Amino acid sequence: MQHTATISRMKAAGAPPRLSGFAQWADRHFKWLLVAPAVLLILALSVYPLLFSLVVSFINYDFQVPGHAFVGLKNFERVVFDPVARWSLLLT
Fold first, then answer.
1. 70-84 pLDDT, tens per residue?
2. What's the pTM value of the predicted model, to 2 decimals?
3. Strand runs labelled E in 28-89
């Protein structure tokens, strides 16, 4: 009989206190708040350059000229059919 009473007292004492609304939100989302800066940094250093290179492959990109004309697949055509570009592609 005494053993049962001890167990019920332990359960009542071990119950976690009730948290406020913000504390519950912070408890659930704290891990995501810690990971978010790293995810944003990885996206900034990997996805942005990938998208930028995709855009540049379809335009006539020149640092000295302010406007960039859309050339479509002409850049790819030049790589395939220009002997100097093809040779440099084979060497690298």
1. 888 998 888 888 888
2. 0.54
3. 59-60, 69-70
